[in-house]
Design goal:
The protein is an alpha+beta fold. Helices cover 24% and strands 33% of the residues. The protein has a 19-stranded mixed sheet that branches. The chain has a three-stranded mixed sheet with strand order 21-24-23, with helices on one face. Strands 20-22 form a two-stranded antiparallel sheet. It is globular, with a radius of gyration of 23 Å.
């Protein structure tokens, strides 16, 4: 089976081998879990860049070997045990079909579904607001070249960069970058910090960082690669917390309509400070995550695999045992659609799957519907889940 998995991951399966792998997936629900973990680790890991693919696969297989022996504590939420197994199989076979699609395998034309009045994915678009209130549409302004108080702003279309010369200015001036629903954008700040801004998000930042702290304000979600400066800490302020770093890589999800603020650390070290409640502070190390509950103002930290929390930055969605209501919230922001549940009990069903972020909505819909547990009906830009 190891040989078969390796051929699958390298897109070398014959049609007979595809059938053999599908049979293996259907035979045992634990095989499904092993397969899901291997595929997720393989596609979201960057380790294979520095090592041979054979070694990486062996490592992933050894890490996942015990999974088949475990009893899942996070089963899909259906009532009868036999139905649980059947639906789990359908869900992961749907994932299997999706992964074949991702790797370019197209041997079975019958898998193609009918058109869904195509809804395109999101793309790079944002509005830049200058200190004087002037707004610039960065989709239309494809060759931006502004000079403001010694700072040059260049770029447009999908990214902007701030280049500054030493300044004697004592007054802090701010710009803001805002993405709409269905938008994303990349910015390099004046200190060389890199920020990937997700859909329906806003970042407020100074033209040039002055004083003893580098402070930015975030609404929504962003991934940060902070330029190291031991003498001037970097701060990210959200509505509910303040994150302090020197130089590190992390992701913050702080949408106003979410019940939690989630901070995921990839490299370095961060300090997360609550702004309200008991104002507790916690430190995160790599592969740790803090979750602040907005309702009870409690903050906790966990050891996690950060891959699927930052998959969006690499052009993927990766959901692992997530509630459908949380998945649809992510999709609605990216595809700029409104998604409603006809039956509220469907909101808490859990799904696992991986999607290319730039596929149209029809592709995502077809994979979700392969579980045979929900149907998505489109009316304009409104999607009904029933």
């Amino acid at each position: 089976m190891e040989k078969l998995l390796y051929k699958y991951l390298n897109d070398n399966l014959t049609q007979d081998e595809v059938k053999e792998l599908q049979t293996w997936l259907e035979n045992d629900k634990n095989n499904l879990r092993v397969f899901e973990n291997i595929v997720g680790d393989w596609n979201l890991s960057n380790k294979y860049i520095d090592d041979s693919k054979e070694k990486v696969l062996s490592k992933i297989l050894s890490e996942n070997k015990s999974i088949a022996k475990e009893i899942s504590m996070h089963r899909l939420l259906w009532s009868r045990a036999t139905k649980k197994i059947a639906i789990a199989a359908a869900a992961v076979i749907a994932l299997f079909v999706l992964n074949l699609y991702d790797f370019g395998f197209d041997s079975n034309k019958s898998l193609i579904v009918e058109p869904f009045q195509m809804i395109e994915s999101g793309k790079s678009k944002a509005t830049l607001t200058l200190d004087n209130g002037k707004k610039i549409d960065l989709v239309e302004e494809q060759n931006l070249n502004l000079k403001l108080d010694g700072t040059t702003i260049v770029g447009g279309r999908n990214s902007i960069t701030y280049l500054n010369k030493p300044s004697d200015s004592k007054k802090q001036k701010y710009n803001s970058l805002k993405t709409p629903r269905g938008g994303e954008f990349f910015i390099t700040l004046s200190d060389s910090t890199k920020v990937w801004l997700n859909a329906e998000s806003e970042l407020k930042y100074p033209l040039v960082f002055l004083g003893d702290k580098r402070t930015v304000e975030l609404k929504g979600e962003a991934f940060f690669e902070v330029a190291h400066n031991q003498n001037i800490p970097f701060q990210v302020v959200t509505n509910d917390q303040i994150i302090e770093v020197l130089g590190t890589t992390f992701n913050i999800s702080s949408y106003q309509d979410d019940a939690e603020v989630i901070t995921t650390l990839i490299e370095g070290k961060v300090k997360v400070n609550q702004k309200f409640g008991d104002k507790k502070s916690i430190f995160l190390s790599p592969s740790e995550q803090s979750i602040l509950n907005k309702e009870n103002l409690k903050i906790e930290s966990f050891k996690i695999d950060p891959a699927h929390f930052i998959a969006w930055k690499s052009g993927k969605f990766y959901f692992r045992q997530q509630k459908l209501k949380d998945i649809t919230k992510v999709l609605s922001r990216w595809y700029d659609v409104e998604i409603f549940f006809v039956n509220s009990y469907l909101e808490n069903k859990r799904f696992t799957g991986r999607f290319k972020r730039y596929e149209n909505f029809d592709h995502v819909r077809s994979v979700i519907e392969l579980t045979e547990e929900v149907t998505l009906v489109k009316k304009g830009r409104i999607i009904l889940v029933k």
